Amino acid sequence: MLTILIRTVLIYIIVTAAVRIMGKRQVSDMQTSELVITLIISEVASLPLENPERPLLNSLVPIMMIAAIELLISLLMMKSRKARSLICGHPIVIIRDGKMIDSQLRLLRISHEDVYSLLREQEISDESTVRYGIIEPNGTLSILTDDNISGNGIQSADLQDELDELDAEEQETEEET
User: Residues in the chain with pLDDT < 50?
Assistant: First the structure.
């Protein structure tokens, strides 16, 4: 019984240290890769608790390896926009100039009602006042209105790429008609 208690405390300390090393985020702010890593660590950490005959080191080493891999991936994402886009995704414009973009909603499997709900959460009562509605890589909806866009606005390169892509699609549609 004492062995299980000691193992539990050690696992707790190691998992807590690994999560702290990876960075502080709430679950709602996690990128997909971070959530997957957290789930894997929790599964690996539970193995020696379920089976006391299993050597503790067989779980501690993988936990620290996973934490190290997550740190390397984080550094790679900081250095490379392509890697960040591949691993985490990129912002997707779902509302442009007050109109929902159905093709983007289908891509994300979001209904108009879901968007209306997200708009209400941000105290937007009329979608026509929205210049851009953007689903961020972490799943949140960002709203840009004419009132809060000044100068160039806050547009990362990946958002500008998305807007350029939408412009190209609109030009193709106009040329077809």
Answer: none
Please tell me whether residue 101 adopts helix, strand or coil conformation.
coil
Q: Of 61, 49, 50, which is closest to residue 14 (Cα–Cα)? A: 61
What does the DSSP assignment read for 128-144? Answer: GGEEEEEE-TTSPEEEE
Other CB atoms closer than 10 Å to residue 34's CB: what's the count? 21
Q: Taken in order 159, 164, 166, 167, is the CA torsion positive or negative?
A: positive
pLDDT in tens, 98-141: 999 999 999 999 999 999 999 999 999 888 889 899 998 878 89
pTM value is 0.62
**b/e burial code for range 132-161 (CB count within 10 A of at least 16 → b):** bbbbebeeebebbeeeeeeeeeebeebbee
Domain extent for 39: 2-87
Give the CATH number of the domain where residue 133 resides.
Answer: 3.30.240.20
Domain count, the chain: 2
Is 69 within 8 Å of 112 (Cβ atoms)? no
Show the DSSP H helices in the chain as ranges: 2-22, 32-50, 57-79, 81-88, 102-108, 112-121, 157-176
Q: What whole-number distance in Å separates Cα of residue 23 and Cα of residue 75?
A: 12
**Contact assessment for residue 105 and residue 112, using Cβ atoms and an 8 Å cutoff:** yes
Q: Are 37 and 70 in contact (CB under 8 A)?
A: yes
